[in-house]
Amino acid sequence: MDNLSDTLEKLKLTGSDCTSDKLDGCLDCLLQALGQNNLESSGKIQQSGILQVFARLLSSQLSCTAKIAHIIAEIAKNEQLRIPCVDSGLIPPLVQLLNCKDQEVLLQTGRALGNICYDSHEGRHAVDQAGGAKIVFDHLRSICTLTDPANEKLMTVFCGMLMNYSNDNDSLQAQLINMGVIPTLVKLIGLVEAGLVECLLDIVHETVSSDKEEDIAELKTASDLMVLLLLGDESMQKLFEGGKGSVFQRVLSWLPSHNHQLQLAGALAIANFARNDGNCIHMVDNGIVQKLIDLLDGHVEDGNVTVQHAALSALRNLAIPVVNKAKMLSAGVAEEVLKFLKSEMPPVQFKLLGTLRMLIDAQAEAAEQLGKNVELVARLVEWCEAKDHAGVMGESNRLLSALIRHSKSKDVIRTIVESGGIKHLVTMATSEHVIMQNEALVALGLIAALELQSAESYLESAKLVQVLHRLLSDDKSAPEIKYNSMVLICAVMGSEPLHKEVQSLAFLEVVSKLRSHENKTVAQQASLTEQKLTVQS
Predict the structure, then answer these.
(1) pTM above 0.85, yes or no
(2) What is the CA radius of gyration of the chain?
(3) What are the distances in angstroms from CA 344 to CA 292, 350, 383, 390?
């Protein structure tokens, strides 16, 4: 380490004035130190201020540029050093190097950018601002047309870089799709027949037991690329081969692995294979659910969040076909998912909610059982206020509504009323999404029909009647929203305080206008509602 300190001091003093031989020697020393103890050496390099020197050296495009990019790639393997890499101004010169023709420079630059982007919002944003993804994608597109084996490593690195760049970021994924990444991936599947997949599977097999950082990075990139190849529907089906494909079988063997990267890639691959009903039904019938439950079981206490998220994604997709729901409930999926209720990680919360919502669709018994679970309902009510996480907030509201709609149970309604869920359902009725508005109104209609007395004070304080008046008065409200709002008005008339509120607002005037609505169902309900309002006024 003393040698490292001397080298850093020398680089700091001379920087770009170093002769190329001396600079080469200094860089070799840094790479050697990183190979011996990456974390400690990376920390020392960052503290020395050399990252800013690297930014200047990269802009000079010297003969040792590939080595500098290699050093940055090694440093950026450490999570806490990715933001310093961005703050030191390394991204713009690295992105410029992507225009270089030298294979080694491209390889190390791709690795550096990929590592800086890994699980780092700041890294992704900086690469986005510098236009790096477009250049990498253009390279990838041209590589697809070449059959030179020397390009395989570059292709793997660039695919891994785009994976890290866009992972868990909807807007960046949309950006790549708009660039045309899917047709390019389909072309990559042309290379599947030329042995790319076998090559990737061999890399996984060779590196899975290694502790070397280089092998760990190679394993990650190879398994990530395997998942990336499954994003296109055509390529996914080709590799699934009706559930008999060797690639699918190999991916299944990754789930029980002790290697977190392989577990993650396996679960993500299953989630991708589970994008059509036929595949989902086949996988559930052939025991995939128990494999995913076993995987999740190993990650309940202080588990790997990315593995939790991926396994829950797979279960959610598998639960979409109607025939799978009862089978998955019998297998104990709901109980397994509930083990993650304590999670404070929004991505896990989001997938947990989505999985439960898919499972209880038209499953009255399961909806009732979950709806009477006080701990679950309390957590849903808490997450309905997660304003920083719109996805979690939306899914919590939808699950709250689904528990009522699918169970039609007084016990479930009482549990939700007592837990403070009413106000969230009323707010949900004002959502910008028609499907969510409708789900809320149907749930509120069931509450009013089955448990009006216990819910009336909550409906009153949530200003339900005023919300319904607004929805009926708004010309932009969808026909189903108008229809269900009128059904709900009729239902709440059985409550004296709510009845008074209905009378105090000009409902009769609004409803009578709807008798001539172009939608016949709305017009008929308007006539019925008008009669009820007139009789009870």
Answers:
(1) no
(2) 29
(3) 21, 11, 10, 15
> Token match 């104990």: residue?
332
Tell me the C-alpha distance between 348 and 337, whole Å.
10
* Integer CA distances (angstroms), 193 to 196, 197, 249, 277, in order: 7, 8, 17, 26
Report CA torsion sign: 206, 211, 212, 213.
positive
The two tokens of residue 210 are 């290694």
Give the number of other CB atoms < 10 A from CB of residue 31: 15
With CA atoms as reference, report the closest residue to 481 among 467, 494, 492. Answer: 467
Mean pLDDT for all residues in the chain: 87
Sort 516 into a burial class: Cβ within 10 Å, 0-12 / 13-18 / 19+.
exposed
pLDDT digits over 229-246, tens only? 777 677 788 788 888 888
Q: What is the distance between the alpha carbons of residues 349 and 345, in angstroms, rounded to a whole number?
A: 6
148-165: pLDDT as tens digits = 656 777 877 888 788 788
Residue type, 161: M
**What span, in angstroms and rounded, lies between the C-alpha atoms of 428 and 405?**
14
Provide φ and ψ at 512, rounded to 5°: -60, -35
Domain 1-130 class in CATH: mainly alpha
Q: How many beta carbons lie within 10 A of that of residue 287, not counting itself? A: 11
Place of tokens 């999985």: 355
- Indicate where the chain has its CATH 1.25.10.10 domain(s): 1-130
Amino acid sitting at position 106: L
Residues contacting residue 162 through CB under 8 Å, at least 6 positions apart: 133, 136, 137, 140, 176, 181, 228
Per-position DSSP letters for 53-79, written without gaps between them:
HHHHHHHHT-TTHHHHHHHHHHHTTSG
User: What DSSP assignment string belongs to 29-54?
Assistant: HHHHHHHH-HHHHHHHHHHHTHHHHH
